[in-house]
Design brief:
Elements: H1 9-16, H2 25-28, H3 38-53, E1 74-81, E2 87-90, H4 110-125, E3 140-147, E4 154-160, H5 168-178, E5 184-189, E6 203-207, E7 212-216, E8 219-223, H6 233-247, E9 254-258, H7 264-270, E10 275-280, H8 283-295, E11 301-305, H9 308-317, E12 324-327, H10 336-345, E13 349-354, H11 357-369, E14 372-380, E15 390-397, H12 398-403
Parallel strand pairs: 4-5, 9-10, 9-12, 10-11, 12-13
Antiparallel strand pairs: 1-2, 1-3, 3-4, 5-6, 7-8, 13-15, 14-15
Helix pairs in contact: 3-11, 4-5, 9-10
């Protein structure tokens, strides 16, 4: 197994033996490998990737996380008021909307966890109206906390279920006294009756810029409440560095980066290629990506607000010249139409970054059927204790390989 660091062997050996002993693990369901040591869970994940991906190509050793606790930089929680007036917070029990009350979490950023617990205490103390999901009434509903490891900035989004938050001032004033490390505080109105955390219609700024800034591989990234960023900062840097290394760019490539989010992949790759275009459907993430490009003064990167599959199909119809396609989709993977468009475009290389080995294996089979041969895969552990694992796969266009 590879380490995220080359030194500090005593520390690394100790982290291999760290065991997830969270008492709420069985109910919460967030940590699929609770009860095991970090080494045991990393080995189990690697075995799974080998089983699913080795039929397509060689699987390199897993790049493990040398700090597998308290890494998650995006944390959200729901609130509930019990009959005795006690306000609890925590994740939902697996397959339900029953809150699992927890005092701390082994994978959540410690600052984020402390802010969430203190919000529950304040809500009880100030007799804040707590949203009732069954009746669809009440004010304080959920909370979202995002932290930036490189800059120390902290964003808090209070999600309310009504147009008014009557005790907003006293609640936010007390919260900021308890946590002066908060750099931006927002209120989101969410009257939806589904599982979406944010309402998606209106976010009100209470304090700060309305976003936080993090730094990955020397580039600054603006992160808004809705934006996608990898939840493990240290390992995200390793993931992108390894993807760039394995891609072995010449510097002359014209690239497409599909499902690009706020542009962290796009801008990280930009220094290694001639030009790169990020494609993102989420409007908030797209806007952040544009801002990030200006912030970092990157001149060879651009962004398109579009569905990745539809954009690729448009490029294929235009007979565009693309040398490399990079994709980092959700755990659902990509689409058959996307893969067909890749065949039409005929890039020499595809860099596929996946957080779900099952959908990755499904897509690799279809890519291979369309003439793209996977030739190396490397798992990178971004999500210790969970069932997720990032895997980088490099695919080569068979027709162009034969010609060369």
């Amino acid at each position: 197994m590879k380490s995220g660091k080359e030194s500090g062997s005593e520390k690394l050996a100790g982290n291999f033996n760290v065991r997830n002993t969270c008492p709420a693990a069985k109910k919460c369901g967030g940590c699929s490998y609770a009860g095991r040591t970090y080494l045991e869970q990393a080995a189990a994940k690697y075995k799974k990737v080998q089983r699913l991906i080795s039929p397509f190509c060689d699987v390199m050793h897993i790049y493990y996380c040398d700090d597998p606790l308290f890494y998650r930089n995006k944390v959200h929680s729901a609130f509930k008021k019990l009959r005795n007036g006690h306000v609890i917070c925590g994740p939902y029990e697996t397959g339900s909307h029953r809150i699992v009350e927890v005092d701390s979490c082994l994978i959540e950023n410690k600052t984020a966890s402390a802010i969430i617990r203190d919000c529950a205490v304040l809500a009880e103390k100030l007799k804040i109206s707590i949203y009732d999901e069954r009746r669809g009434v009440g004010e304080l509903r959920r909370i979202l906390v995002r932290t930036a490891d490189a800059t120390g900035e902290v964003m808090v989004v209070l999600i309310i279920g009504s147009n008014v938050f009557r005790k907003k001032k006293i609640f936010t004033d007390e919260l900021l006294k308890l946590h002066p490390e908060i750099t931006t505080l927002l209120i989101d109105i969410n009257k939806r009756h589904d599982s979406m955390i944010l309402g998606g219609t209106e976010i009100r700024k209470v304090m700060g810029k309305g976003y936080i800034t993090d730094i990955i591989l020397g580039k600054k990234f603006r992160v808004s409440p809705e934006s996608f960023m990898q939840s493990n900062h240290k390992m995200a840097e390793i993931l992108y560095s390894e993807a760039i290394r394995l891609a072995d760019f010449t510097g002359n490539e014209v690239c497409i980066d599909a499902y690009c989010g706020t542009g962290s992949t796009t801008l990280s790759f930009a220094d290694s290629v001639k030009s790169i275009t990020g494609v993102e459907l989420n409007e908030h993430a797209y806007r952040d990506a544009l801002a990030n490009t200006s912030l970092n003064k990157v001149e060879n990167a651009s962004f398109v607000h579009a569905d990745a599959t539809e954009y690729m199909e448009r490029l294929a119809k235009q007979d565009a010249k693309i040398d490399c396609v990079i994709l980092d989709p959700t755990r659902l993977g990509t689409t058959s139409k996307f893969i067909s468009a890749c065949k039409e475009l005929g890039p020499s290389k595809i860099v596929y970054i996946s957080c779900c080995p099952e959908t990755l294996a499904r897509d690799l089979k279809e890519f291979r059927d369309k003439g793209f041969e996977p030739f190396i895969a490397e798992p990178v552990e971004l999500f210790p204790w969970t069932d997720k694992l990032e895997t980088i796969v490099i695919l080569s266009n068979i027709s162009k390989t034969r010609k060369s």
